[in-house]
Design brief:
The structure is a single chain. This protein is an alpha/beta fold and 231 residues long. The chain has two domains: 116 residues, 3-Layer(aba) Sandwich (Rossmann fold), CATH 3.40.50; 97 residues, Regulator of K+ conductance, C-terminal domain (Alpha-Beta Plaits), CATH 3.30.70.1450. 39% of the residues lie in helices and 23% in strands. The chain has ten helices and eleven strands. The strands form two sheets. The protein has a six-stranded parallel sheet, sandwiched between helices. Strands 9-8-10-7-11 form a five-stranded antiparallel sheet. The chain is globular, with a radius of gyration of 18 Å. The two termini are 31 Å apart.
Length: 231
């Protein structure tokens, strides 16, 4: 059975996220107040519904409670975004990822219980700078569009273990190419160095392999990728 995810707000960011999630094998519920936005995407996702993202009755009727992940892609109107986030948490959404337009907006979203905040413009700027600065990796990813590099939280049961003992390359077909520990990103980590709580792994692999890794290890990755081909 496909995992169910909802995307609320079908602007450029929300529509792109909904379509990519559908391509990755999720069952996507796309929601927007605009009939035009819903009509434009209805053939590209599992279900598309006209509904008010701040109205709990309309969200329940659309099937929001069956979704284990909700992406709140309302970013331009802060008050509307915050209210929608509060409604979604009250409805018991397990994992809520929300788009923020500013750092202040992001802090407010966190205060009302949003699990992960995304800053699309900032993240894309960092991603572009990183890609321009790492030519060989950029060229490799552009020539191999099925590959991505993502950041993933270190699995809880991997804390204290090493790359050698975990053997992710053999088990999942992915490669840990770096680690983010606090403000620093390291690419010189040895196979015998143990992971610490709070570490973020920079992992290279196919989209399918990365998804299998995150699902089986019960970890999640930020919506923004560390790097990508064709962006």
């Amino acid at each position: 059975m496909k995992r169910q995810v909802a995307v609320i707000g079908l602007g450029r960011f929300g529509a792109s996220a909904a379509q990519q999630l559908e391509r990755l094998g999720f069952s996507v519920l796309a929601i927007d107040e605009s009939r035009d936005a819903v009509e434009a995407i209805k053939e590209k996702v599992t279900v598309a519904v006209i509904a008010d993202g701040t109205n709990p009755a309309e969200l329940e009727a659309a099937g929001i409670k069956s979704c284990e992940i909700v992406v709140l892609a309302i970013g331009s109107e802060i008050e509307h975004s915050i209210l929608a986030a509060m409604v979604l948490k009250e409805l018991g959404i397990k994992r809520l990822v929300a788009k923020a337009s500013t750092e202040f907006h992001g802090r407010l979203l966190k205060r009302v219980g949003v699990d992960e905040v995304v800053f699309p413009e900032h993240d894309m700027a960092i991603r572009l700078a990183n890609r321009l600065g790492v030519h060989s990796l950029r060229d490799f990813l552009e020539e191999a569009p099925d590959y991505e590099i993502v950041e993933s939280a270190v699995p809880v049961d991997a804390i204290g273990s090493t790359l050698k003992t975990l053997d992710y390359r053999h088990r999942y077909g992915v490669n840990v190419v770096g680690i983010r520990r606090g403000p620093q990103v390291r690419i010189d980590m040895t196979s015998d160095e143990p992971f610490q709580a709070g570490d973020l792994l920079l992992i290279l692999g196919t989209v399918q392999a990365l998804r299998r890794f995150t699902e089986e290890q019960n970890v999640h990755q930020p919506v923004g990728k560390a790097s990508s081909g064709g962006a």
